[in-house]
């Protein structure tokens, strides 16, 4: 399969990206803040949600980013989502709290990233999202957790890993306190992974885990 990163020029104009979400859009807000800085290496051309009431849609509107509500329940729904992103000229797609299983067409494999709030392969898969992940970590007695940025294939929380960042589990942690520290790690790890992909430092075939101490 051709290396998708060959289509993305690190020294060219900002790379157009699509952003998929289901909830409040904290990750989207973080990305908009980072991407507005210099050098401006990417920009969001469309936000898509599977939920009409997703708070991330209001964030997109506030920043003047086109948005759509599109179902993602069947294989064909994924195809329609990527057709829209093709029309928008998106070269990469980021998932930030997107809770549906997304079918990625062959031509998009290697260009879609997701972030998960644990150290995959721990506490991941169908049914593991948001606070449910952090609750699982606490109940397991794990001494550390973190976040993982990985390429999206057609399996929940599967696909080659680009970046992981570790976060300690502290005595007395609650779901809320642990979630907040993991989100802080996500805010660092996701942009780092995107830069690695855009620069060609990482790709689908050569993805590797990069662990950074908290």
Structural commentary:
Helix content is about 30%, strand content about 20%. It is α/β, with parallel strands linked by helices and about 210 residues long. It has a single domain, classed as Formyl transferase, N-terminal domain (Rossmann fold). It has an 8-stranded mixed sheet, sandwiched between helices. Strand 2 (about 40-50), helix 2 (about 55-60) and strand 3 (about 65-70) form a beta-alpha-beta unit. The longest helix has 25 residues, at about 175-200. The radius of gyration is 16 Å and the shape is globular. The termini are far apart. Residues about 1-10 have low confidence and may be disordered.
Please specify the SSE layout and strand pairing:
Layout: E1 15-21, H1 26-35, E2 42-49, H2 55-62, E3 67-69, H3 75-88, E4 92-95, E5 112-116, H4 131-140, E6 144-151, E7 161-168, H5 175-199, E8 211-212
Parallel strand pairs: 1-2, 1-4, 2-3, 4-5, 7-8
Antiparallel strand pairs: 5-6, 6-7
Helix pairs in contact: 4-5
């Amino acid at each position: 399969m051709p290396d998708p990163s060959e289509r993305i020029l690190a020294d060219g104009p900002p790379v157009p990206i699509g952003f998929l979400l289901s909830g409040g859009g904290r990750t989207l807000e973080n990305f908009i803040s980072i991407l507005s800085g210099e050098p401006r290496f990417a920009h969001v051309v469309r936000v898509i949600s599977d939920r009409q009431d997703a708070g991330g849609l209001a964030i997109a509107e506030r920043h003047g980013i086109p948005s759509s509500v599109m179902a993602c329940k069947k294989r064909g729904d994924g195809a329609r989502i990527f057709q829209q992103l093709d029309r928008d000229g998106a070269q990469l797609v980021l998932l930030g709290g997107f809770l549906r299983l997304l079918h990625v067409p062959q031509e998009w494999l290697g260009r879609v990233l997701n972030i998960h709030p644990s150290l995959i392969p721990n506490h991941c898969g169908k049914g593991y999202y948001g606070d449910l992940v952090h609750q699982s970590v606490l109940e397991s007695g794990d001494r550390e957790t973190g976040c993982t940025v990985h390429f999206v294939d057609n399996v929940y929380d599967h696909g080659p890993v680009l970046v992981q960042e570790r976060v300690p589990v502290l005595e007395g942690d609650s779901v809320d306190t642990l979630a907040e520290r993991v989100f802080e790690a996500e805010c660092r790890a996701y942009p780092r992974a995107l830069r690695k992909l855009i620069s060609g430092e990482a790709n689908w075939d050569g993805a590797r885990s990069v662990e950074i101490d908290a």
